[in-house]
Amino acid sequence: MPVLPPGLTQESFDKALDEFRAAIGAQWVFTSEADRASYLDPFDIGDQHDHASAAALAPADVEDCRKILAIANRYKVPLWPVSMGKNFAYGTAAPEMRGSVILDLKRMNRILEIDEQMGTAIVEPGVSFFDFKAELDRRGSRLWMSGPAHSWGSVIGNALEHGVGYTPYGQHAEQICGMEVLLADGTLVRTGLGALEGTREWQAYRWPFGPALDGMFTQSNFAIVTKMGLWLMPEPEGMAGVSIRVPRKDDFRALVDTLRPLRMTDTINAPYTIANGWRQITGGRVRSQVWDGPGAIPQARMEELLAERGDGWWSVIFNLFDSPAGLDLRLDKIRRAFDQGLPGATIDVRRWQQGEPQEPWMRQEVSLAPLGAVDWGGSPGGHSDLGPIVAPLGGRAEQVYEIIERRFLEYGKDPWVGIFGISSRALVFVADMYFTRTDAEETARCRALFRQLCADMQAIGVGLYRTHLRFMDDAAAMHAWGDHALPRLNDRIKAALDPNGILAPGKQGIGSWNSREGTDR
Description:
The chain is an alpha+beta fold and 521 residues long. It contains 13 helices and 19 strands. Helix 1 runs antiparallel to helix 3 (62-75), helix 6 runs antiparallel to helix 9 (324-341) and helix 6 crosses helix 10 (394-410). The longest helix has 20 residues, at 440-459.
């Protein structure tokens, strides 16, 4: 069935489509049912068609984008920019507002610069992690990229959504240094030192004269990012892959408190991941192979499964980056800390040094393997997750974990929880909800669970790292301090930069958070 942009008649939308075809070429304007279906979210936690697009456009360059913006402003056509549309668990390429037109930037896929001396790069939105790794390899580069769990997505898109990786450069938004952005009125802006003609330092420094605006264009709908500068990590002399097994469930508080000073002192100099028992037991299996009873897998069965695998209730994995001698010092300090704080923990270590072949544990090879877990609960599978940001204090982390586990069990879901030590002072919990997409009762239960957890987190002052587009209004409304002063400020910026509201309406709840409360979208 045809889908129209809000407020447009078929006649006016047809005119706009004709103008888009004339502007960028008819072959890059997609309106067929099959084309539009390709932009639906395959993992949606509800009816995919709640977020169906009206069409899709694939510009070749900035000038094509400018032409599209002029037409969209004239007809009030909402656009939903996507770099590659692989934002799995968070909406993929689907728009927040039904009837938006996808602005698919995948044709803008040039790697414009890799500077070996400075350890920087400039890329366009359509460059995937696969593309970027292949180009680094082709050049024989001594620079490493930091990739996320799966490599299908856009380097720019992942950084804009605050994606994370597993190296010391694992906070991808923090590696941004300079952007080129296209505002809704067609104005092209280069941030930071890129505003100087002929500069050599665009990617050298993030805090030059005046406001630093790069962060304003992450997780927002204020502009279209057409280029991005990034910092890359020089190849380390050596690496150590550390795996820690912690036997008892009630060791969690001590585990967080043991890891915190190691991360704060940079002894652990890259993000770590803590997995609870439910997250560990998959091993390439589906749920029915380990439990076919009602509700979540019981703790007694979980303990049997973990014992079969030789796992503790908690596992921790991370990589260290240093010279061989430096790795020895780091590992010695880590062992001493666990001997004192968690003497029952078991620590295993693997080593690598320059010149040796890379191995999978190093997470430098591009991969789609993590997507294999999506059918855990049944096929066709889907998943979404709740991502609270929590201080790495044992009591605080335990408080949040206990709320999440209790609510998952209450709603009959397995509490798959990973905790990502993304920085020295923050944990990101990733509480995964796996479901069978065709089961309307189950997806409705997952939506209710998500909203219940949003209320629980808000009640204790915990916010979210990112969220599925279906819950963007809910996440924005959690920021209630000062009569929602922050969401209101975001709305004011949006109104100033995009008065017609054509760029990604509803993204992150900006421009709409307080006008659509109580909906189940």
